[in-house]
Amino acid sequence: MRIGFGEDTHRLEPGRALWLGGVHIPSERGARAHSDGDVLLHALCDALLSACALGDIGVLFPDTDARWKDLQSRVILEAVLERVARAGYRVSQLSGVVTLDRPKLSPHRATIQARLAELLSLPEERVGLTFKTSEGLAPDHVQARCMALLEAL
Amino acid sequence: MRIGFGEDTHRLEPGRALWLGGVHIPSERGARAHSDGDVLLHALCDALLSACALGDIGVLFPDTDARWKDLQSRVILEAVLERVARAGYRVSQLSGVVTLDRPKLSPHRATIQARLAELLSLPEERVGLTFKTSEGLAPDHVQARCMALLEAL
Amino acid sequence: MRIGFGEDTHRLEPGRALWLGGVHIPSERGARAHSDGDVLLHALCDALLSACALGDIGVLFPDTDARWKDLQSRVILEAVLERVARAGYRVSQLSGVVTLDRPKLSPHRATIQARLAELLSLPEERVGLTFKTSEGLAPDHVQARCMALLEAL
Ligand SMILES: [Mg+2]
Ligand SMILES: [Mg+2]
Ligand SMILES: [Mg+2]
After folding, report:
1. B50 is known to lie in a ligand binding site
2. For ion ligand 1, residues whose CB falls within 5 Å
3. Cα C63 vs. chain centroid, distance in angstroms?
4. Which pLDDT score is estimated for A5?
5. Chain B residues with CB-CB distance to C under 8 A?
6. Which residue is closest to C57 within chain B, CA to CA?
7. Nearest CA in chain C to B125
8. A108 annotated binding-site participant
9. By CA distance, what is C138's nearest residue in B?
10. Which of A49, A103, A143, B81 would give a disulfide with A99, using CB separation of 3.0 to 4.6 Å?
């Protein structure tokens, strides 16, 4: 068994799409990023890499590399899952928090949960998601933290 | 076995009581909140709900609902523990961090630990609490993050 | 089995050395601190203490005590590991995140990982480290969060 913890933050700006857990969320602002800026998938990927001590997505998919420009984060997740499998593990459960002031995310929980379950081949009851607002600490950012539980293949 | 991670933040303001882990802490400021603003219990509740993929306290106890006005957070915790039990799990251990600049919390650790142990029916040695100051990053907020370990009933 | 979560933050200032995971990182600024300000070791120590409900490093090594002035954090870690062992546990794995804008930390990952593995008597593949920048939220701070997995001796 392994555990992993990861986090991610992006600044919000107008005219960008907002992606969370592989789902497009209607929003006036989205994450400024080289990729699609999906903080939840990025935090999850780092949690998985960290659980297996395989580095982080910053080093595997450097934002200075034109190949990863506008990369969909589910492609990053697929590559991460492959490395995790090669290390002898698979995801067993995840627990993630997204902090964002607007829009309200709870109406999207079921969709994000279903999408993550699909991407990770997990039952939905093993994909825990909670949502928070920043209470004035980060009104112009979207943040995610994620814990993952892995088991040996 | 399940793991869960949750967090919570509230802004501090004068004339409010400060509650942490079900304990009233003498303080010049307390959490601005619809409920009693107990960030430690809120982070714990979200960790437990997240571990079982049962949503979060924002959706179970919406702050737009007059029924939950000034609600004591231990009532929220009781409702959360009931749902967790219905899902087939019970809390086995927790590890929480509270970040607050003033007052100093370490003199209250034993009291909070005993209170949480009682609320969760856990031995005190399974209730880990650490306290930090914000180092200038959040002087007007109280924050908590919490990890929980659950086992099947 | 026990899990623990800990975090630490220090303000950066010129003329201080930057220590992370017991490794000196060349940097224009380092952590303002009573000790060497190693946020990664501090977050790890608090995660270990929290997993065993043994308090936190703020209470074990108070920064008001002249004995701990300029203390190397690996000495704190040794004392923490001793207490954890007395409580009947040993570290089995860790997953840590360091948030710092500059310098880039990924060139130092292997060194920090090797050092932590040595300090904890763990294989390197059980020492997971990810690095993030603050994206404007904390340009003058260094932060760490750490999860640890412990097993009974
Ligand atoms: Mg990112
Ligand atoms: Mg709250
Ligand atoms: Mg420190």
Report:
1. no
2. A 8, 42
3. 16
4. 98
5. 3, 5, 93, 95-97, 99, 106, 109, 113, 124-132, 134-137, 145-147, 149
6. B130
7. C53
8. no
9. B137
10. A143
What pLDDT, in 10s, does the model give residues A27-83?
999 999 888 999 999 999 999 999 999 999 999 888 777 777 767 899 999 999 999
pLDDT, residue A56, reads 97
CA B77, CA B70: separation in Å to the nearest integer? 14
Which residues does chain B have within 8 Å of residue C2's beta carbon, measured at their own beta carbons?
93, 149
Q: What is the ipTM score, two decimals?
A: 0.96
What is the C8 CA–ligand 3 centroid distance (Å)? 5
A127/B53 CB distance under 8 A: yes
Contacts A–B by Cβ distance under 8 A: 79
Chain A residues close to C43, C-beta within 8 Å: none
Mean pLDDT by 10 residues, chain B (153 residues): 98 97 97 92 98 95 75 92 98 98 97 98 98 98 98 97
Rounded to the nearest angstrom, the distance between the alpha carbon of C33 and the centre of ligand 1 is 30
Question: What is the rounded CA–CA span in Å between residue A35 and residue A70?
Answer: 4
CB neighbour burial string for B97-128, b if at least 16 within 10 angstroms, e if fewer: bbbbbeeebeebbeebbebbbebbebeeebbb
Q: Report residue B101 as tokens.
A: 């600049």
Q: What's the pLDDT at C39?
A: 98
User: The whole model's pTM is what?
Assistant: 0.97
Give pLDDT, residue A71. Answer: 78
Distances (CA, A) of B91 to B81, B88, B132, C54, C57: 8, 11, 25, 19, 26
Q: Average model confidence (pLDDT) for chain A?
A: 95
What is the CATH classification number for the domain harbouring A141? 3.30.1330.50
pLDDT value of position C66 = 74
Containing structural domain, residue A127: 2-152
Task: Answer whether the bond into residue A103 is a cis peptide, omega within 30°.
Answer: yes
DSSP structural state of residue B35: S
Structure tokens at A73: 């984060």
Closest ligand (CA of A133): 2
Pairwise CB contact (< 8 Å): B126 & C53: yes
pLDDT on residue B34? 82
Give the strand pairing for B89-99 and B141-152.
Answer: antiparallel
Cβ contact B10:B32 at 8 Å: yes
Number of domains present in the structure of chain B: 1
